[in-house]
Design goal:
By secondary structure, this protein is of the alpha+beta class. It has one domain: Thiolase/Chalcone synthase (Peroxisomal Thiolase, Chain A, domain 1, 3-Layer(aba) Sandwich), CATH 3.40.47.10. It contains 10 helices and 8 strands. An 8-stranded mixed β-sheet has the order 3-2-4-5-1-6-8-7. The longest helix is centred in the N-terminal third of the chain and has 17 residues. The model has no long low-confidence stretch (mean pLDDT 93).
Length: 270
Amino acid sequence: MTAPVFIEGIGLLGPGLADWQQGAAILRGQASYAPAATALPVPEGLPSAERRRTGPAVKLALAVGRQAIAASGRDAATLATVFSASGADGHNYHAICESLAGDDPTISPTRFHNSVHNAPAGYWSIATGAMAPSNAMCAHDGSFAAGLLDAYSQVLASRAPCVLIAYDTGYPEPLRSARPIPDAFGLALVLTAEPGPATLASLRPSLVMGDSEGEAPTPMADAALETLRAAIPAARALPLLQALAREDDATAVLDYLDPLRLRVEVAPWR
């Protein structure tokens, strides 16, 4: 059995999911899920010049990260971070492709620095004053599982808390036809090596083989939530979030890199 890590705070924002409190009620079955376009807030903590330059990926990552850290009661400036996304800012990529295909292929410096995969990590550092280590992960549709494994390993190795921030945003056409992510979805988890006053649950992740050994990804019973889970890579975390919302001992099997899956054993902290 793998060693546990502990969750102290959760952030959530996606289609029809405004925050963790509302999302948890839906995932427990206490409220109906009504799909709606994700409303991205103005990013807090950034100077006005940086706020104007941010795209959907940065707004989403900062919003869910701040939610989770506020719930944990910790200081964002002191926490290591792992940012995980399957493709980062698709709207910025679209604008760059339009420039390159036009008569004047000049790309602005702002477009360029927002195109790198770790751009949200840089804006996070500006917004929170964080100087702790930060990783940026990408593993296509398995990006959430890759980020969770990285954050889990860091917490066990360093014995210091870490924030996992996983997110995906959509693409305009014609990129959407090739990568049909319909909307923005993000979540954040504050992970620690030891339980504390704010601990919600423990996690024990482990790698397992895929469908050939019966380890298919855990589906969502609600058809609309299952559609969301399958449509957005970061939303592959929904079975884990449902286990956390229900506060029961449970196991969630998540998509990773075929033929591997990530099995996560969840136990509420009592």
